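Sequence only, no structure available. Ideas?
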Amino acid sequence: MIGKMVLHYRILEEIGRGSMGIVFKAEDTLHGRLVALKIIAEKLVDDPQMLHRFEREGAAASALRHPNVCTVYESGEWFGRPYLAMELLDGETLEQRKAAGPISSAEIIDIAIDVTSALEATHAIGVIHRDIKPANLFLTTTGQVKVLDFGLAKIKVSSKPVRQDAPTASMFITTRGMLVGTLPYMSPEQLRAEPLDGRSDLYSLGVVLHELATGELPIHGRQPLPLPAGLGPVIAKLTAAEAGMRYQTAGEAREALQRCAPGRETFEHGAL
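Reply:
I predicted one. Tokens follow.
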């Protein structure tokens, strides 16, 4: 594929590969920019569930422009294979970052503010991510966080299940609905396959922050691990078992986090 043209994209190098497809660094010759070009695996072209997930990722992420959401520039098909042309990012996921060593409280707060700012924007247009986890949060070399992978985002109710071998766990657990997400980061209501709102994403973020701060996932009913002063109460409220006990909006959570880091400016979102 290196050197080939995919419509007006010139493939420069492969930068990622997964069960859904391949991601290339490519030159957009029409707009004069570098992009990350994600092309679905050829073997999945006839798989309606994976096609649906791929299309949903493009639809959800392209519905807004926000500095803390990885921008989708374009989606389309190339010889029957769907593709997404996305913002090319330089840095690492939080999954990689947390494996590299301890993260300071100040950095955790900055990360959390960026993510809540992104969730505030996505929730405002009716999109629930449903898979907030370290692997889907990208830390750029400039210190900015980008939310990735809207493949499981809830835009409208769908009866189509996600394949069992998809990179994110999926299974039927009740007759009321389908459970989709990544188990350790799911809210209690998500585990019960109940209807979700933005508070479920906030719970998942709280789990991520707890893990970044302590190195371990929170376990309800166990003696809580010591958390950084100031940040501890915020994480505890984010991870409350009952949705009604959490912050009710991403904006509320962002404001609480800003009080932990006075003077930090954040982007005021605007959905396009």
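Confidence is low (pLDDT under 50) at residues 156-177, 265-272.
Hope that gets you unstuck.
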